[in-house]
Amino acid sequence: MIKFLLFCCPKLNIIDENIELLIKTEYRIMKKLVVLGMGVCLVLAFASCKSSESAYKKAYEKAKQQELAEPQVAAPVTTTKVADTSGVRQEKVTVVSGNEGLKDYSIVAGSFGVKANAEGLKDWLDGQGYHSTIAFNADKAMYRVIVNSFADKTAAAEARDAFKAKYPNRSDFQGAWLLYRVY
User: Fold this and answer.
1) Those residues with Cβ within 8 angstroms of residue 127's Cβ, 6 or more apart along the chain or in another chain
2) What is the pLDDT of residues 25-56, one digit of tens each?
Protein backbone atom coordinates (compact mmCIF):
# COMPACT_ATOMS: atom_id res chain seq x y z
CA MET A 1 0.00 0.00 0.00
CA ILE A 2 2.86 2.35 0.80
CA LYS A 3 4.51 1.62 -2.52
CA PHE A 4 1.25 2.49 -4.23
CA LEU A 5 1.18 5.87 -2.44
CA LEU A 6 4.77 6.55 -3.42
CA PHE A 7 4.00 5.67 -7.02
CA CYS A 8 0.95 7.94 -7.14
CA CYS A 9 2.44 10.86 -5.28
CA PRO A 10 6.20 11.20 -5.74
CA LYS A 11 6.24 14.09 -3.26
CA LEU A 12 5.40 11.66 -0.47
CA ASN A 13 8.88 10.26 -0.84
CA ILE A 14 9.65 11.84 2.49
CA ILE A 15 7.97 8.97 4.37
CA ASP A 16 10.67 7.42 6.40
CA GLU A 17 11.00 3.98 7.82
CA ASN A 18 9.45 4.93 11.16
CA ILE A 19 6.14 5.91 9.61
CA GLU A 20 6.13 2.76 7.51
CA LEU A 21 6.81 0.67 10.61
CA LEU A 22 4.02 2.47 12.47
CA ILE A 23 1.52 1.74 9.68
CA LYS A 24 2.50 -1.94 9.58
CA THR A 25 2.20 -2.22 13.38
CA GLU A 26 -1.24 -0.64 13.40
CA TYR A 27 -2.33 -2.93 10.58
CA ARG A 28 -1.22 -5.97 12.60
CA ILE A 29 -3.05 -4.72 15.69
CA MET A 30 -6.20 -4.12 13.66
CA LYS A 31 -5.93 -7.61 12.19
CA LYS A 32 -5.56 -9.14 15.67
CA LEU A 33 -8.58 -7.19 16.92
CA VAL A 34 -10.72 -8.44 14.03
CA VAL A 35 -9.71 -12.06 14.70
CA LEU A 36 -10.31 -11.60 18.44
CA GLY A 37 -13.73 -10.03 17.78
CA MET A 38 -14.73 -12.90 15.52
CA GLY A 39 -13.64 -15.38 18.18
CA VAL A 40 -15.72 -13.62 20.83
CA CYS A 41 -18.73 -13.65 18.51
CA LEU A 42 -18.34 -17.40 17.91
CA VAL A 43 -18.03 -18.13 21.61
CA LEU A 44 -21.15 -16.09 22.36
CA ALA A 45 -23.07 -17.74 19.55
CA PHE A 46 -22.29 -21.27 20.74
CA ALA A 47 -22.79 -20.42 24.40
CA SER A 48 -26.23 -18.92 23.78
CA CYS A 49 -27.44 -22.04 21.91
CA LYS A 50 -26.72 -24.36 24.83
CA SER A 51 -29.85 -25.36 26.71
CA SER A 52 -29.69 -25.23 30.43
CA GLU A 53 -30.06 -28.50 32.26
CA SER A 54 -32.20 -26.88 34.92
CA ALA A 55 -34.86 -25.97 32.34
CA TYR A 56 -35.18 -29.63 31.37
CA LYS A 57 -35.31 -30.66 35.01
CA LYS A 58 -38.08 -28.16 35.77
CA ALA A 59 -40.15 -29.34 32.80
CA TYR A 60 -39.69 -32.97 33.84
CA GLU A 61 -40.72 -32.27 37.44
CA LYS A 62 -43.79 -30.32 36.29
CA ALA A 63 -44.89 -33.16 34.01
CA LYS A 64 -44.32 -35.68 36.80
CA GLN A 65 -46.47 -33.62 39.20
CA GLN A 66 -49.29 -33.41 36.64
CA GLU A 67 -49.10 -37.14 36.07
CA LEU A 68 -49.37 -37.83 39.81
CA ALA A 69 -52.15 -35.29 40.29
CA GLU A 70 -54.42 -36.66 37.56
CA PRO A 71 -55.69 -40.19 38.04
CA GLN A 72 -55.40 -42.16 34.84
CA VAL A 73 -58.70 -43.70 33.80
CA ALA A 74 -58.33 -46.21 31.03
CA ALA A 75 -61.31 -46.63 28.78
CA PRO A 76 -62.19 -50.24 28.07
CA VAL A 77 -61.03 -51.31 24.64
CA THR A 78 -63.26 -53.56 22.64
CA THR A 79 -61.91 -55.36 19.63
CA THR A 80 -63.51 -57.76 17.26
CA LYS A 81 -61.17 -60.44 16.08
CA VAL A 82 -62.06 -62.14 12.84
CA ALA A 83 -59.12 -64.53 12.75
CA ASP A 84 -56.10 -65.32 14.91
CA THR A 85 -53.27 -63.64 13.04
CA SER A 86 -50.63 -63.40 15.78
CA GLY A 87 -47.22 -64.20 14.36
CA VAL A 88 -48.60 -63.76 10.86
CA ARG A 89 -48.16 -60.90 8.39
CA GLN A 90 -51.34 -59.46 6.96
CA GLU A 91 -51.15 -58.26 3.38
CA LYS A 92 -53.43 -57.55 0.48
CA VAL A 93 -52.11 -59.61 -2.42
CA THR A 94 -53.31 -60.61 -5.86
CA VAL A 95 -52.40 -63.87 -7.60
CA VAL A 96 -50.09 -63.25 -10.55
CA SER A 97 -48.96 -66.73 -11.50
CA GLY A 98 -50.08 -70.21 -10.51
CA ASN A 99 -53.19 -72.23 -11.01
CA GLU A 100 -54.32 -72.56 -7.40
CA GLY A 101 -56.36 -69.92 -5.61
CA LEU A 102 -55.16 -68.65 -2.26
CA LYS A 103 -56.86 -69.51 1.01
CA ASP A 104 -56.65 -67.41 4.18
CA TYR A 105 -53.19 -68.58 5.35
CA SER A 106 -50.25 -69.10 3.02
CA ILE A 107 -46.61 -70.14 3.43
CA VAL A 108 -44.29 -67.62 1.81
CA ALA A 109 -40.93 -69.13 0.80
CA GLY A 110 -39.49 -66.00 -0.81
CA SER A 111 -40.13 -62.32 -1.52
CA PHE A 112 -38.73 -60.53 -4.54
CA GLY A 113 -38.85 -57.07 -6.04
CA VAL A 114 -38.27 -58.51 -9.53
CA LYS A 115 -40.89 -60.84 -11.01
CA ALA A 116 -38.29 -62.89 -12.92
CA ASN A 117 -36.60 -63.86 -9.64
CA ALA A 118 -39.94 -64.92 -8.17
CA GLU A 119 -40.67 -67.00 -11.29
CA GLY A 120 -37.27 -68.71 -10.94
CA LEU A 121 -38.07 -69.82 -7.38
CA LYS A 122 -41.59 -70.86 -8.41
CA ASP A 123 -40.19 -73.04 -11.20
CA TRP A 124 -37.71 -74.65 -8.80
CA LEU A 125 -40.44 -75.35 -6.23
CA ASP A 126 -42.72 -76.79 -8.93
CA GLY A 127 -39.85 -79.09 -9.89
CA GLN A 128 -39.69 -80.24 -6.26
CA GLY A 129 -43.34 -81.30 -6.40
CA TYR A 130 -45.01 -78.21 -4.95
CA HIS A 131 -47.81 -76.32 -6.67
CA SER A 132 -46.48 -72.87 -5.87
CA THR A 133 -48.11 -69.54 -6.61
CA ILE A 134 -46.81 -66.00 -7.10
CA ALA A 135 -48.80 -63.23 -5.42
CA PHE A 136 -48.12 -59.51 -5.78
CA ASN A 137 -48.34 -57.00 -2.93
CA ALA A 138 -48.96 -53.65 -4.62
CA ASP A 139 -48.43 -51.63 -1.43
CA LYS A 140 -44.86 -52.90 -1.03
CA ALA A 141 -44.20 -53.69 -4.71
CA MET A 142 -43.09 -57.21 -3.78
CA TYR A 143 -43.74 -60.60 -5.39
CA ARG A 144 -44.43 -63.32 -2.80
CA VAL A 145 -43.66 -66.93 -3.77
CA ILE A 146 -46.23 -69.07 -1.95
CA VAL A 147 -45.54 -72.75 -1.38
CA ASN A 148 -48.97 -73.77 -0.17
CA SER A 149 -52.19 -72.23 1.14
CA PHE A 150 -54.48 -73.32 4.00
CA ALA A 151 -57.84 -72.35 5.50
CA ASP A 152 -56.65 -72.38 9.13
CA LYS A 153 -53.57 -71.07 10.89
CA THR A 154 -52.63 -74.28 12.71
CA ALA A 155 -52.38 -76.35 9.53
CA ALA A 156 -50.42 -73.57 7.82
CA ALA A 157 -47.96 -73.29 10.74
CA GLU A 158 -47.38 -77.06 10.79
CA ALA A 159 -46.80 -77.11 7.02
CA ARG A 160 -44.40 -74.16 7.29
CA ASP A 161 -42.38 -75.95 9.96
CA ALA A 162 -42.33 -79.13 7.88
CA PHE A 163 -41.16 -77.12 4.85
CA LYS A 164 -38.31 -75.62 6.87
CA ALA A 165 -37.37 -79.06 8.22
CA LYS A 166 -37.30 -80.53 4.70
CA TYR A 167 -34.68 -77.97 3.59
CA PRO A 168 -32.42 -77.39 6.64
CA ASN A 169 -29.45 -76.36 4.47
CA ARG A 170 -31.38 -73.68 2.59
CA SER A 171 -31.00 -70.56 4.73
CA ASP A 172 -33.44 -68.68 2.51
CA PHE A 173 -36.18 -71.21 3.29
CA GLN A 174 -35.51 -70.97 7.03
CA GLY A 175 -37.06 -67.50 6.83
CA ALA A 176 -40.36 -68.83 5.48
CA TRP A 177 -43.34 -67.06 7.07
CA LEU A 178 -47.13 -67.12 7.17
CA LEU A 179 -49.23 -64.67 5.21
CA TYR A 180 -52.83 -63.86 6.12
CA ARG A 181 -54.58 -62.61 3.01
CA VAL A 182 -56.55 -59.39 3.46
CA TYR A 183 -59.24 -58.66 0.90
Assistant:
1) none
2) 888 888 899 999 999 988 887 776 656 667 77
